């Protein structure tokens, strides 16, 4: 490479002046999700446009007569109502994930598949309606559906193509870029560094580089932001979203960084030459012709993640509302026993290593931790009488359904731990933070497997193996099994007392 990376303007230097007209108009695109909302808005407009064109075809073609003479307002209302199902289907299927970080063909193919599914559902609904009414489905209805299908595909495709052009232009101005860190110097990483610096439309803002102990060129070191030992602090302080590995002959270090550090909380990509160290754990990805391999892709498909979240919301709402009289009675009994607070709130470490406040019905004495922080033990003398019953039946966990509604937890996942214990166990078991790659849960694989919960390195290691098993095998089927087996444990009153 002849040109220095430093010669290219940084994203902040590409922004229009804040006080200029262009700066004011483009200010909303500084928001992290601005590009996503632009895509959603264009999809909505194009779906409405497709419906309006469909209306014009039906009225003016002479093939259909059912819409002729219909006032404009009902048509506009139907046009608006037609948007919600399509946007919901697009969102549910995951085509708004990593938007425009794919080739146009891949993106259009994803939209085509989802739209085909939507029309299959629509066709079945129209068919059942026709059969229930006349006993047969008229050919004009089939033609009508095919016309609507073609118009939706064409409209959304044209809209997406236009947005891609807009997004590429915005990225050149420094908007919508993902903050990126490159680890390890090699000919390929320097080439990629140059390519990303010269082509911001690729979607990456290289914050800096990190050299490994093998060493690095002066050009690579010029953008260094720290050393490998500072990786956790760098990723958090710089809000790194993507980590790219470019080192050679340091495979053990790469694997350790992927597993034991904050790198695991970012999107991990590697130079293709390193594929052999992650064989079977990666998938190839081309970003506008840039060959990279994405490591540790999501185990659950996006639609399954949406269903999991929908189940969390519906189930938590039903539990909190339908059981409200019982929860109020429990609150009264807790207060009557020692006149202490009913709810006990405690800081826990959740998804991405971020702390949040977990809530429980208080099952221990108010002064339970006057001698310091310890794990709860079997037949713990600090547990109150009503608390013993609640712990056996897991009723003390009920307020955590509020954490689930807030999105801080899920029904199923690794149990969240206190920062004190996270720090303690990370020092003993460096892979411990991998638990934070998924949302913590009310119940989990470990909760239905473990028989004793005493604090020891053996028990913690076993708990970690159970949590990793769940993370590596996440599925709706596994969630259903865990929930069912948890219910059985509750009925048998196998909770720790």
What would your notes on this structure say?
With 497 residues, the protein is α/β, with parallel strands linked by helices. The chain has 3 domains: 26-172, no CATH class; 178-295, Rossmann fold (3-Layer(aba) Sandwich), CATH 3.40.50; 302-491, no CATH class. The protein has 19 helices and 11 strands. The chain has helices spanning 11-14, 21-26, 34-60, 72-81, 83-93, 104-133, 139-172, 187-198, 218-221, 231-237, 251-260, 302-322, 324-338, 385-393, 400-405, 419-428, 445-449, 457-472, 476-491, and strands at residues 178-183, 204-211, 224-227, 242-245, 267-270, 282-287, 290-295, 343-349, 355-361, 410-412, 441-443. The strands form 3 sheets. Strands 3-2-1-4-5-7-6 form a 7-stranded mixed β-sheet. It has a two-stranded antiparallel sheet with strand order 8-9. A two-stranded parallel ribbon has the order 10-11. The longest helix is centred in the first third of the chain and has 34 residues, at 139-172. The protein is flat. It starts with 10 loop residues before the first helix and ends in a 6-residue tail after the last helix. The relative contact order is 0.07. Residues 1-6 and 274-281 have low confidence and may be disordered.
Q: In terms of topology, how is this protein built?
A:
Elements: H1 11-14, H2 21-26, H3 34-60, H4 72-81, H5 83-93, H6 104-133, H7 139-172, E1 178-183, H8 187-198, E2 204-211, H9 218-221, E3 224-227, H10 231-237, E4 242-245, H11 251-260, E5 267-270, E6 282-287, E7 290-295, H12 302-322, H13 324-338, E8 343-349, E9 355-361, H14 385-393, H15 400-405, E10 410-412, H16 419-428, E11 441-443, H17 445-449, H18 457-472, H19 476-491
Parallel strand pairs: 1-2, 1-4, 2-3, 4-5, 10-11
Antiparallel strand pairs: 5-7, 6-7, 8-9
């Amino acid at each position: 490479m002849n040109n220095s990376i430093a010669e290219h303007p940084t994203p902040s230097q590409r922004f229009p002046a804040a006080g200029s007209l262009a700066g004011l108009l483009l200010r909303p695109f500084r928001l992290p999700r601005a590009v996503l909302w632009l895509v959603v808005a264009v999809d909505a407009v194009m779906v409405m446009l497709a419906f309006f064109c469909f209306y014009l075809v039906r009225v003016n073609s002479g093939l259909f007569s059912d819409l002729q003479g219909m006032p404009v307002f009902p048509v506009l209302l139907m046009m608006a109502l037609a948007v919600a199902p399509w946007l919901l289907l697009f969102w549910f299927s995951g085509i708004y994930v990593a938007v425009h970080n794919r080739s146009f063909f891949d993106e259009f193919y994803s939209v085509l598949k989802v739209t085909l599914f939507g029309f299959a559902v629509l066709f079945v609904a129209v068919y059942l309606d026709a059969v229930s009414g006349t006993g047969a489905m008229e050919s004009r209805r089939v033609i009508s559906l095919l016309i609507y299908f073609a118009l939706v595909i064409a409209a959304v495709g044209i809209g997406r193509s236009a947005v891609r052009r807009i997004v590429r232009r915005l990225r050149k101005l420094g908007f919508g870029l993902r903050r990126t860190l490159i680890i390890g110097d090699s000919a390929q990483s320097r080439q990629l560094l140059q390519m990303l610096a010269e082509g911001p439309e690729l979607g990456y803002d290289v914050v800096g580089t990190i050299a490994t102990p093998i060493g690095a060129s002066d050009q690579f070191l010029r953008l260094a932001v720290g050393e490998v030992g500072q990786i956790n602090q760098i990723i958090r302080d710089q809000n790194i979203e993507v980590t790219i590995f470019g080192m050679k002959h340091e495979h053990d270090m790469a694997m350790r960084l992927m597993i034991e550090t904050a790198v695991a909380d970012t999107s991990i990509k590697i130079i293709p030459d390193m594929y052999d160290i992650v064989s079977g754990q990666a998938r190839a990805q081309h970003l506008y012709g840039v060959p990279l391999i994405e490591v540790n892709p999501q185990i659950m498909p996006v639609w399954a993640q949406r269903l999991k979240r929908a189940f969390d919301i519906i189930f938590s709402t039903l539990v909190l509302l339908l059981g409200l009289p019982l929860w109020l009675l429990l609150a009264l009994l807790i207060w009557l026993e020692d006149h202490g607070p009913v709810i006990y709130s405690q800081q826990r470490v959740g998804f991405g290593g971020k702390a949040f406040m977990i809530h429980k019905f208080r099952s221990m004495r108010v002064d339970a931790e006057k001698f310091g922080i310890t794990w709860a033990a079997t037949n713990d003398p600090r547990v109150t009488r009503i608390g013993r019953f609640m712990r056996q039946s897991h009723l003390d966990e009920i307020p955590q359904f509020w954490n689930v509604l807030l999105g801080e937890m899920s029904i199923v996942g690794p149990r969240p731990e206190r920062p004190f214990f996270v720090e303690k166990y990370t020092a003993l078991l460096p892979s411990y933070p991998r638990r934070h790659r998924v949302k913590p849960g009310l119940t989990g694989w470990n909760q239905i497997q473990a028989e004793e919960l005493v604090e020891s390195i053996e028990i913690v290691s076993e708990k970690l193996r159970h949590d990793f098993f769940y993370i590596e095998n996440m599925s709706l089927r596994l969630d259903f099994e865990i929930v069912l087996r948890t219910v059985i444990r509750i009925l048998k009153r196998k909770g720790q007392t």
